[in-house]
Design brief:
Strand order of the largest sheet: 17-18-19-20-21-23-22-24-25
Distance between the termini: 44 Å
Shape: globular
Oligomer: single chain
Helix content: 10-25%
Structural class: mainly beta
């Protein structure tokens, strides 16, 4: 049940334990009662990270996680060789890793900062480690904050159960349809839920930040405003990022070198003969020859092969592409297909070879453009039909996509893989089924801010609050049993499905 009180100054609404006041200029507060009546409070403005040293401008975050190594990155106001002291839980300073180079200069807003990154090596599979970050002079940048810890992935052949999260289309300061630079409450709550989910790592399906990718958009702990600090603000990735590694791929809103600077996945890419770096693309269908960040690679953990694929193209470089029967919304799909998914294309040939060399194991694929989507503005990518058939032939069990800012589960069938669209990580969510619901859409939910109402397809009930559409997927693997538990920003699970995957 939803109740609302309106006045000329704003609107107070109460829905499923969530009390929110919204006005034309800000979201003043949001109280969320989740599982076990846990209470979270999102303030009206960003603040720094209490307890951290004043030099720290981005809290440490993890990426490129393997069974033997992980990347730790952060940013500071001063330039030095960053250092990390780490070890197994109980002996957190057993080892020290120091960067070979000084921190790289970056500009966030008008502020010069320095990005640091250090690789921790000598790790063991499925082992808990703790760490702290320092300047070269020995200043503990975490100050009085607790020591973060993380657990490395399972070994390739392990049969132990494990959990990971899937997140897509994040990094907006827009809150409830209003972009005034205050906290995006729904995104903050999604990040908070991930932090306590028990996920070993997070798979990101593209578009970390909206509407573009810049150091200012990624931001820091101190600055705020419209399209500022939408990722590294203290209410967002700071919460899970210190303890849960992110493994991701590019989207159409991350087609700059900034993406490669912020996220490092070179160890995973190298181990699978994939690509993580800039690639020069010639002109296709009247587009300009251009250099784009490119990411495709794979890894195996807990007996499952994970594929991170590059299905992305820049919105402003579509040339003469028409999008076919889909129209202009699909012009970027057409360009992506020409660049990545023709016989002989480097990524396509790599994918076919890797699938063939990993037969007989469960496989999951993650990429940005959706195989099937009932979004009017980000519809199904029919140009990926040959890719889906290749994935079917290669024994892929589940596909996870982003791009469409909604939730949609698509059923499997002949020549068709069960797939998810998970685009509700924080970017402004959209309606589902405006042009009709497809027969394969088993469960879909969306929200329209212009109409102030939800929408649904398949077996889903119509959402009564936008907070029900913002979500991530919690995925648990236990042998050949895989459970996908979508979890909304209120902490409620919905449309939980269990699959039996390739033995």
């Amino acid at each position: 049940m939803t109740s609302r009180l309106s006045s000329p100054h704003g609107r107070l609404s109460s829905q499923h334990g969530r009390l929110t006041f919204r006005n034309a200029r800000s979201a003043v507060f949001a109280l969320v009662l989740g599982a076990g009546t846990a209470l979270s409070f999102a303030p009206t403005a960003h603040a720094d990270l209490p307890g951290a040293d004043a030099q720290l401008t981005r809290a440490p975050y993890l990426s490129d996680a393997t069974t033997a190594s992980v990347q730790v990155s952060w940013a500071t106001t001063t330039q030095s060789r960053g250092s990390v002291r780490y070890g197994p839980v109980g002996n957190c300073s057993a080892n020290t890793a120091t960067s070979a180079t000084l921190g790289s200069p970056i500009t966030v807003g008008s502020t010069r900062e320095y990005a640091n990154s250090v690789t921790l090596t000598g790790l063991s599979a499925s082992t808990a480690y703790c760490y702290r970050v320092y300047t070269a002079s020995g200043t503990d940048l975490l100050g009085t904050l607790p020591t973060p810890s993380f657990t490395t992935p399972e070994s390739a052949g392990s049969t132990a159960p494990f959990t990971f999260a899937v997140l897509g289309d994040t990094g907006e300061t827009t809150n409830a349809g209003v972009n005034d630079g205050t906290v995006n409450v729904n995104q903050a709550n999604v990040m908070s839920r991930i932090a306590t989910s028990g996920a070993r790592f997070v798979l990101q399906t593209g578009d970390n930040t909206h509407p573009g990718t810049s150091q200012t958009q990624y931001g820091d702990l101190n600055q705020n405003g419209a399209d500022v600090s939408s990722w590294f603000g203290p209410s967002y990735w700071t919460q899970p990022g210190m303890s849960i590694p992110l493994i991701g791929t590019v989207g159409n809103h991350s087609m700059t070198n900034t993406y490669l600077q912020v996220w490092r996945q070179s160890a995973l890419a190298a181990a699978s003969a994939g690509v993580w770096g800039p690639v020069d693309y010639p002109a296709y269908l009247g587009s300009n020859a251009i250099t784009y960040p490119t990411s495709y690679y794979a890894f195996t953990t807990g007996g499952v092969r994970f594929y991170l694929l590059d299905t992305a193209w820049g919105n402003s470089n579509t040339g003469d592409a028409t999008g076919g029967s889909c129209g202009s919304h699909c012009a970027i799909y057409e360009q992506d297909a020409h660049a990545h998914w023709q016989d002989g294309s480097a990524e396509y040939e790599w994918l076919k070879a890797d699938l063939a060399s990993h037969s007989g194991v469960p496989k999951f694929a993650f990429f940005h453009f959706p195989l099937r989507s009932d979004s009017a503005s980000e519809p199904s990518d029919t140009f990926l039909a040959n890719v889906e058939q290749t994935l079917v032939n290669g024994g892929v069990d589940l596909v996870f996509n982003g791009h469409s800012h909604l939730y949609q589960r698509n059923s499997a069938g002949p020549g068709r893989i069960a797939s998810y669209v998970t685009g509700g990580g924080g970017a402004t969510v959209h309606s589902v089924g405006e042009d009709g619901c497809s027969a394969t859409d088993a469960y879909g939910i969306g929200w329209s801010y212009s109409r102030d109402r939800g929408s649904a397809c398949g077996a889903a009930a119509v959402p009564t609050d936008d907070a029900q559409v913002y979500h991530f997927l919690k995925v648990t693997v236990d042998g050949t049993s895989v459970t996908v538990a979508p979890t909304d920003s209120l902490g409620r699970t919905f449309d939980v499905q269990t699959y039996t995957v390739t033995p």
